[in-house]
Design brief:
With 304 residues, this protein is mainly alpha-helical. Helices cover 63% and strands 3% of the residues. The protein is globular and about 60 Å long. The N and C termini lie far apart (105 Å).
Length: 304
């Protein structure tokens, strides 16, 4: 019984630690812990459709195409069964639980909620791998490689998802939304392809640099979106305005004629730039303009 508890702790702890790290990074305007927790468990529940679709849809489809045992079989497993299916389910968890919630009101929130869903899924997957094998070395290896990789897939997804939400409608917004799924699918597929060939020395050697690359890339994206926060007090150019949407409270984007969160039209004159980078939340209501004195009667109205 004691061994099972150790294995369970080893399987669960990495995901919770990484989620706590990303949660504490959000110093400007912390997210509701309850919503982050719901997103984490929604990601964990996505293990059910992943197993069901993989078993009853993707496996028969692969068999119908004659893929098992062939050269394309590892690619199918890496990029379709693991990459496409798992990342689509994680994205669905974020979409239904957090994306349309008013608390997702800055780009970094996309990273936090996508990582929460990804780590929820990774935690359940970790328990399924580590506990039945009763091998601490498996738990340690997955704590170093698999769980951080899932976290960084979530960061990649959330980076594009968070940026897309605050882009004006148009081609760039659609491209950002597409990248929110496409980029983590590719990264996940490459990772799984190397894991499947981990017996090969070259694949094993490449696996660690890949995870290191995911970390460096992911942390840069985290820092970038934190620096763009409309709630940041650091000087610098901000893409948001000091004023907020009167309906939902989301900071307004420069040049926008409507709120990108709830769609309420916004008068252009309501857009007051946050020039010094002060948080929109800290900006109080604009002081009323001083009433101008009445214009004096035209002197010499009858002429000079």
């Amino acid at each position: 019984m004691g061994k099972v508890v150790e294995l369970l702790a080893l399987a669960v702890a990495p995901g919770l630690f990484l989620l706590l790290y990303l949660y504490l990074k959000d110093r400007h305007e912390p997210e509701p812990l309850a919503l982050v927790t719901r997103t984490f468990f929604a990601g964990a529940l996505m293990a059910v459709p992943v197993v069901a679709v993989g078993e009853f849809v993707l496996v028969p489809a692969a068999e119908a195409m004659g893929l098992p045992g062939g050269r394309l079989w590892p690619w199918w497993q890496a990029f379709v069964t693991a990459g496409l299916l798992e990342e689509t389910c994680k994205l669905a968890a974020v979409w239904f639980v957090a994306y349309r919630n008013p608390n997702l009101n800055e780009p970094y929130d996309g990273i936090l909620y996508a990582a929460a869903a990804s780590l929820g899924f990774a935690t359940i997957e970790n328990v399924a791998y580590v506990v039945p094998q009763a091998d601490l070395s498996v738990g340690v290896a997955r704590a170093v490689l698999a769980v951080p990789a899932h976290a960084m897939f979530g960061v990649a997804m959330g980076y594009y998802l968070g940026r897309a939400k605050f882009k004006p409608p148009g081609l760039r917004r659609r491209l950002m939304g597409a990248a929110a799924l496409a980029v983590p699918v590719v990264l996940h597929g490459v990772y799984d392809l190397l894991v499947q060939d981990a017996g090969d020395q070259l694949a094993f050697i490449l696996l660690y640099p890949l995870v290191a690359f995911l970390w460096v890339r992911g942390l840069r994206q985290v820092d970038e979106l934190l620096a763009r926060s409309p709630f940041s007090r650091q000087p610098g150019r901000q893409v948001y305005l000091a004023s907020r949407c009167p309906r939902c409270g989301t900071p307004l984007v420069a040049g926008a004629r409507f709120c990108f969160h709830c769609g309420r039209p916004v008068a252009p004159e309501a857009a007051v730039a946050a020039g010094d980078g002060e948080a929109a939340a800290a900006a109080g209501p604009a002081p009323a303009a001083a009433a101008e004195p009445p214009a004096p009667a035209a002197e010499g109205a009858l002429g000079q």
